[in-house]
């Protein structure tokens, strides 16, 4: 493998979503690994929105009312009620206590209760029932 080919591979990996690349032949081997910046926000005012741009995250002002965010602690499917035919855990306007269950996130067939980190009133529900959520994704606004 020539130096030019190695440079082209490095550039290709840098410009892609690939975080690791491994190449081996009879004469040589190459392993490329790039750093990925992970930004996880578990609490921020609602007047800010987390926007992902490539490998970085940027906070942008939105002008929404102030409050505390309850974010998903894992990747999975969000359920706003304990069962399909049951009432939702909370609705906008409900008063909640710290530790109260707001939703469930199913991950790998395990049901994980999402509890409020705050006492307050539910200002906004940012996810829909059955929606896939990402790690750190805001789910509820509590003020």
Question: Order of strands side by side in the largest beta sheet?
Answer: 5-12-10-7
Low-confidence runs (pLDDT<50, min 5 residues)?
A: 38-47, 55-59
The beta-strand count equals 12
The geometry reads as elongated
Write down the secondary-structure element order: HEEEEEEEEEEEE
Mean pLDDT: 78
Which structural class matches the secondary elements? mainly beta
3D architecture notes:
The protein is 8% helix and 41% strand. With 143 residues, it is mostly beta strands. It has a four-stranded antiparallel sheet with strand order 5-12-10-7, with no helix packed on it. A four-stranded antiparallel sheet has the order 9-8-6-11, with no helix packed on it. Strand 8 and strand 9 form a beta hairpin.
Give me the secondary-structure topology.
Layout lengths: L2 H12 L5 E5 L4 E5 L14 E6 L2 E6 L6 E4 L4 E4 L15 E2 L4 E7 L2 E6 L4 E6 L6 E2 L4 E5 L1
Antiparallel strand pairs: 1-2, 3-4, 5-12, 6-8, 6-11, 7-10, 8-9, 10-12
């Amino acid at each position: 493998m020539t130096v030019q080919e190695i440079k082209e591979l490095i550039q290709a990996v840098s410009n892609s979503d690939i975080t690791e690349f491994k190449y081996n032949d009879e004469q040589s081997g190459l392993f490329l690994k790039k750093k990925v910046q992970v930004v996880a926000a578990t609490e921020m005012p609602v007047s800010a929105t987390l926007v992902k741009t490539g490998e970085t995250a940027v906070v942008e002002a939105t002008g929404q009312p102030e409050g505390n965010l309850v974010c998903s602690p894992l990747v999975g499917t969000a359920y706003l009620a304990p069962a399909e035919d049951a009432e939702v855990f909370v609705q906008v306007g409900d008063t909640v206590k710290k530790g109260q269950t707001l939703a469930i996130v199913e991950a790998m067939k395990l049901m994980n209760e999402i509890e409020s980190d705050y006492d307050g009133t539910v200002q906004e529900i940012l996810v829909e029932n059955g929606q896939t959520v990402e790690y750190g994704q805001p789910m509820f606004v509590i003020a």
